[in-house]
TrEMBL record:
Places the protein is found: Cell membrane
Cofactor (UniProt): Ca(2+)
Start and end residues of each stretch annotated as Disordered: 254-285
A GO CC term attached to the entry: plasma membrane
Example GO biological process: lipid catabolic process
Lineage, top ranks: Eukaryota, Viridiplantae, Streptophyta, Embryophyta, Tracheophyta
Protein name (Swiss-Prot/TrEMBL): Phosphoinositide phospholipase C
Domain called C2: residue spans: 402-531
Keyword Membrane: yes
Amino acid sequence: MATHNYKVFSCFNRKFTLTEPEPLSDVQKAFSEFSAGASSLSADHLLRFLVEHQGEVDCTASDSNQILQQSRKEDRESGFDLHDFFHFLQHNDFNAPLKSQVHHDMNAPLSHYFVYTGHNSYLTGNQLSSDCSDVPIIKALQRGVRVIELDLWPNSDKDDIDVVHGRTLTTPVSLLQCLKSIKEYAFVKSKYPLVITLEDHLTPDLQAKVAKMATQVFGELLHIPQTDSLTEFPSPESMKGRILISTKPPKEFLESNEKESDDDVSSLPDNTNEQGIDDKSSPEYKRLITIHAGKPKGDIQDELKAAGKVRRLSLSEQALEKASESYGADIVRFTQNNILRVYPKGTRLNSSNYKPHIGWTYGAQMVAFNMQGHGKSLWYMQGMFRTNGGCGYVKKPEFLIQKGPHNEVFDPKIVLPVKKTLKVKVYMGNGWSLDFSPTDFDTYSPPDFYVKVCIIGVPADMAKKKTSVISNNWFPVWDEEFDFPLTVPELALLRIEVRENDKRQKDDFGGQTCLPVSELKSGFRSVPLYDENGDKFKSAKLLMRFQFR
């Protein structure tokens, strides 16, 4: 039994014993029920528990036997006793809150998926003066991001291409270096297609150089479409292991080259001297484009209703919010076949982010985020894409894909009746004593933890709850339950955050996670916690229970 000593005023020590909690009453009840009153849980008993209580309907007798073999102590041949069962429930490998495999239908068009999307993926920090590098691109790919954005500008000699945030003090990185890193890391986390969105400010000869460079670096990984008039996007499954290019066709770029790009800050004068641009265009460059992109040229409603070949449209978060006030249904219809990319407003100079539901509730597939802009909004984004095996593609709810008999579509502004209620029980937590030093939270005593439990989704579903504070305990037991009525559970995220109560200053951070409600596995679940950057703690976790009514 371990102890922690805390020195107070350099005069005397306070000694606290670290005592792990005994099995909780709900755990005891489940053990008694599924062991049929016996002192141990056999493989057959465990299988029934997994299927009936945990909802693991695909589990087999072989699975339950294997779990017992992996968990059994060397000197014990029988099944789980109560304490073994209690520790088993806290094991994330066996009782994770989400499925770890890809399980969505991946054969629908790309427009039917939310896609993990980066914004200005090359920036290491703020939008004005940070370095440009391939390092944040690599980190994004390692996290499963499937859309990388590169801004292309002529270098100082006008004979090569830099990746840089135009008209700012950001320092450039070469396009070739970015492409090589993208090739190396494109499919380390996910085998599903990687989309590179190009915001180019290049002369036709440099566009041709980009095409040659991409073709040479990516080789067979680069998808070259057979036609530039797609009536439907390919599926993630059909494009597995391929790199797709998305940008404006050269002619459309030339028509708008004097306009600012999607998110140029334009705080400094434009010294790029793009005098070489003329009516010529690069056919080599154009033939690489799988997803044709553009910005609204006139009335937004006309753009949303335009028929013909499928395409990608980009709107700022502000433009989307404004358009949704009058044309919400048109936006949803547009995203059923086309792709809508949403990007941060230009005033987010510190690389902060917006609430992703601004885009998701209208079916926007590419909700582009600053991956270096840590905070709650990025937690929501990371949480959404933890599902479906972390592959970076999440199938949109059917109501965002289907039309009604009278061409009606989902309207996020209409308050719908409650569809189901999520019951969340927070039992206990542990692992902080392994991930933190004894004085990381309090100098003179163990931490005083509490848990925030929130729903993020459509306005009618938003809710905040929190547990009581458990004082001076590295192994807090709350045993508290909360109900969340949900009208649109398919778009809801469960946000969980552990804080340490501090009476003198801001409460300390103790871990967080976000989980898509529609993907939650029922029953007892071991919920791993993540730090403020979204990196998983080695040990800190919560024991919780999820039920739907």
